[in-house]
Amino acid sequence: MSENPYQWLNKSLATIHRANWYRSVKTIDGLPGAIVQLEGKSVINFASNDYLGLAGDERLIQAAIAATKAYGTGSTGSRLLSGHRELHRELERAIASLKQTEDALVFSSGYLANLGAIASLVGQKDLILGDIYNHSSLKKGAILSGAKAIDYNHCDVEDLRSKLELHRASYRRCLITTDSVFSMDGDLCPLPKLLNLANEFECMLLIDEAHATGVMGKTGAGCVEHFNCTGGELIQIGTLSKALGSLGGYIAGSNELIDFLRNRAASWIYTTALSPADTAAALRAIAIVRQEPARRKQLQHNSNYLKQQLSECNLFPSESPIICIGLDNPQAALKKAQQLQQAGIFAPAIRPPTVPTSRIRISLMATHTIEHIDCLVAGIRH
Ligand SMILES: *Cc1c(COP(=O)(O)O)cnc(C)c1O
Description:
There is one protein chain. The chain is an alpha/beta fold. The chain contains 15 helices and 14 strands. The longest helix has 17 residues, at 293-309. The structure holds pyridoxal-5'-phosphate. Pyridoxal-5'-phosphate binds at residues 109-111, 114, 135, 137, 179, 183, 208, 210-211, 239, 241, 249. Residues 109-111, 114, 135, 137, 179, 183, 208, 210-211, 239, 241, 249 line the site of pyridoxal-5'-phosphate.
């Protein structure tokens, strides 16, 4: 009985090391952007979710400072108690307007938005069918909800159909969940077909636009807009922390959906409201997304250019600024990432358990120049 109850941590860490699964943080200094200071060295940054280059934008910084001066650093309470400010409502109206939904609700993060939505929309009598490559927050939300959760093969509508035929009738409600741009692969979900299936089998459909908001669609509304599905009845989730350069998450949809979530989503009710600075920065970012479509066009141009330049590589299919090069094993991916970093390029290795197969994951920004991309291409071919 003298065994230390924390002894297992050591063993578990050793296992993680042996599998080459060990991760640690890397320190970045200074403002975010296409060039950053990584562990004291200037590198071209292909690892950022700041697709439009807004996280270091002077206008967002000034908006955050002004909101902090006006309202303080903390919002001091949950939205339903003392935390609600008019600024939150303005941001929610701006999101709903961008998304062309009736209303929206902001959360402290995209992760919390997914947990809160899923766990309040379905329960033990219900079924969740999720794409097997879905983000962790969708998968953990499914577990938290207590619903029966079944994965379907990645973007495979035939597999989804057969699972619906097999299981749908045994459950009360059914929720289909999917990323819109898959975060570790860069491909898009087959949204129109998913909507048809949801309709046919009386399912709700939740789409996670984390990597698509500000990036995809003519006005930056996301994949729903990209696929011309605007106005369809579905639950749209996203984050304020990627292309919008701030922090926080949102859910956009019908008045009824949002009203319900305000009364049932525990990760919204029992947590402190978004800080004034984050709220104001996100609000400013949405205005820029709408006023400066050139950023989105440049990002698209950069993505097309890189794909062309790397056409001889083992590229994953992608219609987004996330472009992955497949490698045979975690060691090969790590070696390539280290080699790139020595050449002044930050493009991380992504490996199991995050994804089933190892890769170098490149995410492009509107603020990358052709020279930056040429440098990356040279480093990869090397
Ligand atoms: C990043 C991400 C989230 C989480 O958003 P945060 O605001 O960073 O918590 C959720 N879903 C997907 C698909 C993501 O890529």
